[in-house]
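Q: Given only this backbone (283 positions), what sequence would you predict?
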């Protein structure tokens, strides 16, 4: 089964892209590839300008840890761990000393308006506050890109709007590229570009004016067949707790259902770190 075929996407520094489509359309597969959680079976994927085909497992994890930040629908916070220690987790994998980890984690939490909740555990926080902690965790490693998978999916509209405002402020003020995977067309309409996926077809749309104006199609490419990848999304979420980087993806990923399911589980357990720029080709 081909989960993605012929997808070509480039995310520039400071860009803001929304990936939209129904369940089974390949959104999760695309996000896993952009985040270097999986390797394409064909084509080229570059992270930080480096072809992942030439990187070993540890080296790829290090590049991902230093370049990419992940934010998930279910927050993926350690339940018995304080906000500050949850945020500091990606820095543990970099070998950052404890005092410096805490300083940087506190700074990241203050940046998302959570400086007053440093010692609280997830069960002491609202859903919106938990997602802010998750954003701080993605931010703590100074990523070049943040990948957000349904970041408002577990929140009401008011809290969801606050989370999107925060992500967009980081994109605008810090120049962090932002890629949001969503089913919500209102959320997608806020982005600079949209990659719409349905029944294996990926179409790239570009905003031609300010938010609220109409969108026009920039280019359409990529036929994608079949996708049972949505089932692997939850497992992958648990592993990709790290910041990461800009991505250009040319996706050529032929994946068999059972092999992809096993790969997602392994990726989930390993992605607690920040990552890098990426280009992917999939044929």
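A: Predicted residues:
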């Amino acid at each position: 089964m081909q989960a993605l075929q012929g997808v070509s996407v480039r995310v520039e520094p400071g860009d803001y892209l929304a990936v939209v489509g129904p369940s089974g359309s390949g959104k999760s597969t695309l996000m896993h590839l952009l985040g270097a959680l999986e390797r394409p079976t064909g084509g080229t994927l570059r992270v930080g300008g480096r072809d992942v085909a030439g990187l070993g497992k540890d080296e790829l994890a290090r590049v991902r840890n230093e370049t990419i930040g992940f934010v998930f629908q279910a927050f993926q916070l350690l339940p018995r761990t304080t906000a500050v220690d949850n945020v500091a987790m990606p820095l543990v994998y970099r070998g950052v000393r404890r005092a410096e980890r805490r300083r940087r984690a506190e700074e990241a939490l203050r940046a998302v308006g959570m400086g007053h909740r440093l010692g609280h555990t997830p069960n002491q926080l609202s859903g919106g506050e938990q997602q802010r902690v998750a954003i701080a965790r993605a931010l703590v490693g100074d990523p070049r890109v943040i990948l957000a998978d349904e970041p408002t999916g577990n929140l009401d509209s008011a809290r969801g709007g606050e989370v999107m405002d925060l992500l967009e402020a980081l994109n605008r003020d810090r120049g962090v590229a932002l890629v949001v995977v969503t089913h919500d067309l209102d959320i997608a309409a806020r982005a600079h570009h949209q990659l719409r996926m349905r029944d294996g077809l990926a179409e790239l749309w570009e905003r031609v004016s300010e938010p609220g104006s109409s969108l026009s199609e920039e280019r359409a490419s990529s036929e994608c067949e079949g996708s049972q990848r949505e089932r692997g999304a939850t497992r992958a979420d648990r592993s990709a707790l790290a910041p990461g980087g800009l991505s250009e993806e040319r996706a050529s990923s032929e994946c068999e259902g059972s092999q992809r399911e096993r790969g997602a589980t392994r990726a989930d357990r390993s992605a607690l770190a920040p990552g890098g720029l990426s280009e992917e080709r999939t044929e």
